[in-house]
Write a structure and sequence with these properties.
Strand content: 15-25%
Active site: 194 (schiff-base intermediate with substrate), 247 (schiff-base intermediate with substrate)
Structural class: alpha/beta
Bound molecules: ligand PBG
CATH class: Alpha Beta
Keywords: Heme biosynthesis, Lyase, Magnesium, Metal-binding, Porphyrin biosynthesis
Number of domains: 1
Number of helices: 11
Helix content: 25-40%
Binding site for Mg(2+): 232
Strand order of the largest sheet: 1-4-5-8-9-10-11-12
GO molecular function, one term: zinc ion binding
CATH superfamily: Aldolase class I
Subunit structure: Homooctamer.
Distance between the termini: 36 Å
Largest sheet: 8 strands, parallel, barrel
């Protein structure tokens, strides 16, 4: 035998020399859940060891993240029921929880990259990502609200807005409003290929944002589709997206590679709440080796083509590196 592949696997030193993919703290975006109150750190029941923080504890948490080398956060807020309505009015409140959360992070760690989720669902009395009329999700009126919401987040100090709603044309509407208002350096990380996935369940527990009727299949993508992911992503780039995202991760790595091979903007992947919960549950039972599985999945996501990963495992991962 002239060629023996095992020569390149003889020791950890050799393997590390020829390793094609490495994860670093630079790769991560840390999703954070924020709630009203003081001194609140609530564990999310379907996401063991993941928490909702009140603003005072959020401050502590982001300082710790920064000290671990994690330099980017993606903020989500849990909105009290009495502030929810059909049009997401509270989302535009200058002094709303998201706007205060952005300022809190920026004050605590000014260099931290702050990204904000832009979608109506946490603010919607229907738990949908758009305005509802006669049981339908309205596209064009929703994108106007999303643009105002984005403006409000960048006014509070966010560097990137991350529209996660999948309304058509919203990137253009957001981009035009940000330009018009002078926020030409604010970035858009678009959830470009976001699938109607069953893996978002624990996240909806975290924010109490499950749809009150029906499902999200008239706006989020059909998991069976591949070409459509490219169409969605190219359109978002044309409309002014700076970073494109594929979501969820593990089941969609073929899409990640397709998109990475097609576009010339940075590609992000969201390893979602259900992916987190699966690993936690199986490792709590002793069925999987938690740390090994976490690193394997993150490495696979990066190998598939992700240049950054939004992951609930970010903190665990950097401690393991
Ligand atoms: C809101 C939003 C969702 C997620 C991110 N932003 C839920 C949904 O679309 O229903 C899911 C994230 C996760 O599961 O970790 N539009």
């Amino acid at each position: 035998m002239l060629i023996r592949n095992r020569r390149l696997r003889t020791s950890e030193a050799v393997r590390s020399l020829v390793r094609e993919t490495a994860i670093t703290p630079n790769d991560f975006i840390v999703p954070l859940f924020v709630v009203e109150g003081k001194n609140v750190k609530e564990e999310i029941s379907s996401m063991p060891n993941y928490f909702r923080y009140s603003l005072d504890l959020l401050e502590k948490e982001v300082k710790e993240l920064w000290s671990l080398g994690l330099k980017s956060v993606l903020l989500f807020v849990k909105v009290p029921d009495d502030l929810k309505d059909n049009k997401g009015t509270e989302a535009l409140n200058k002094d709303g929880l998201m706007q205060r959360a952005v300022k809190t992070v920026k004050n605590a760690v000014p260099e931290m990259v702050v990204m904000t989720d832009v979608a109506l669902d946490p603010y919607s009395s229907y738990g949908h990502d758009g305005i509802v009329e006669n049981g339908r999700i309205l596209n064009d009126p929703t994108k106007e609200v999303l643009a105002k919401m984005s403006l409000s987040h960048v006014q509070a100090g966010a560097e990137f807005v991350a529209p996660s709603d999948m309304m058509d044309g919203r990137i253009k509407t957001i981009r035009e409003l940000l330009e018009k208002e002078g926020f030409d350096t604010a970035g858009i990380m678009s959830y470009s290929a976001k699938y109607a996935s069953a893996f978002y369940g624990p996240f909806r527990d975290a924010l109490d944002s499950a749809p009150g009727f029906g499902d999200k299949k008239t706006y989020q993508m059909d998991p069976a589709n591949r070409d459509e992911a490219i169409k969605e992503t190219l359109l978002d780039i044309e409309e002014g997206a700076d970073i494109v995202m594929i979501k969820p991760g593990l089941c969609y790595l073929d899409i990640v590679r397709d998109i990475r091979n097609t576009v010339n903007v940075p590609v992000a992947v969201y390893q979602v709440s259900g992916e987190y919960a699966m690993i936690k549950a199986a490792s709590e039972k002793g069925w999987l080796d938690h740390d090994a599985v976490v690193l394997e999945q993150l490495t696979a996501i990066k190998r598939a083509g992700a240049q950054m990963i939004a992951s609930y495992f970010a903190k665990d991962a950097v401690k393991l590196l």
